[in-house]
Amino acid sequence: MTEVAVAVIGAGAIGRAHCETIRRSTSCRLVAIAEPAAAGRAYAEGLGVPCYSDARDLLEAVKPQAAIIATPNATHRAFAIACIERGIVALVEKPVASTLADAAAIAAASERAGVPVLVGHHRRHNPIARRARAMIAEGALGRLTNATVLATFYKPPDYFDVVWRREAGGGPVLINLIHEIDLIRHLCGEIASVQAVTSNAVRGFEVEDSAAILLRLAGGALVTLSLSDTAASPWSWDLASGESPNYPPQPAMVQTHFLCGTDGALALPTLEHWHYASAKSWFAPISRDEIGLTRGDPYLAQIDHLARVVRAEEAPLITARDGMLTLRATMAVHKAAETGQIVRPDQEMQL
Ligand SMILES: NC(=O)c1ccc[n+]([C@@H]2O[C@H](COP(=O)([O-])OP(=O)(O)OC[C@H]3O[C@@H](n4cnc5c(N)ncnc54)[C@H](O)[C@@H]3O)[C@@H](O)[C@H]2O)c1
């Protein structure tokens, strides 16, 4: 089958990772890069692919079938719309945009034109998440009651040499927690309300370094999330799941996500399933099935999915509208922390 022609807009950290993934894939081929900075242009030259400093020039000249938008968040809207106008399928990195208005504009343009836009919440493509979602859908947990998510890890001091990472919006809520919010929505359903407390007590920067969050889901389940980027801890999906080569393997497996229902419980990433073999009671023994860590590269799976969307074999696993709802729920965490109020994203946060 012919490989799908893909361009990458923005050859920074994640843009380069996408370039490498495309080069490893058998479903897509990298046809061009758009990047104004000298380092990114040298990178493109090293790969032997044409590089344009203006992404629109690339789209006009190369006419790729798909483009990956891996630029700063505030530019996502303009590049996504430029792709949609040309009938080019776009994979927009997360967050889908920097504001809800931009996210809504991308979603509306994509739907109006019938040109798919995917959002780079790559974790949905991880086989662990796929298996967990299937188990929940098949009723392995019964009715969901509670979930606990630990996202506690340590970013070294030099990470904060970049000014925007010390300022409001540059912190672990919008950068890291958004992945947890998206996974909760994907596995457990829509978020009806959000309560949160954030803290900058350790680093003292304008941005938060820790947060405690409580979600009520539309189905009634309650979710607590503990977040910190200044905790010397292994309890983080990125560290435990082994999905990214950026993090070293841990000496022992740890669980980071605990999902509970009326008929069973599931711990991730190892997919440890707890349930009663006979009558359900805390006085009876409970059994444990260890399904085990099913490793697979979610970034590669995402690229293969992009190819199938271009070929109209699949609908996007996460559309621009879906990405917008994840962004809205994540922004609700900041709003809840600032106001001390319970925030209902669908009623109180304008799109
Ligand atoms: N899914 C993930 O795992 C993941 C991980 C990291 C970052 N991201 C997201 O990817 C995006 C980029 O993040 P990053 O960490 O790679 O940032 P980065 O700063 O390393 O890279 C951004 C690149 O875009 C280039 N750029 C800026 N303006 C441009 C323009 N007008 N046209 C073309 N290129 C332009 C910059 O020169 C830079 O090379 C952000 O939206 C971020 O949230 C996602």
UniProtKB/TrEMBL annotation:
Transmembrane segments: none annotated. Residues 130-234 form the GFO/IDH/MocA-like oxidoreductase domain. Residues 5-121 form the Gfo/Idh/MocA-like oxidoreductase N-terminal domain. PANTHER family: BILIVERDIN REDUCTASE A, BLR3664 PROTEIN. It holds the Pfam family GFO_IDH_MocA_C3. GO terms for molecular function: nucleotide binding. This is Gfo/Idh/MocA family oxidoreductase.
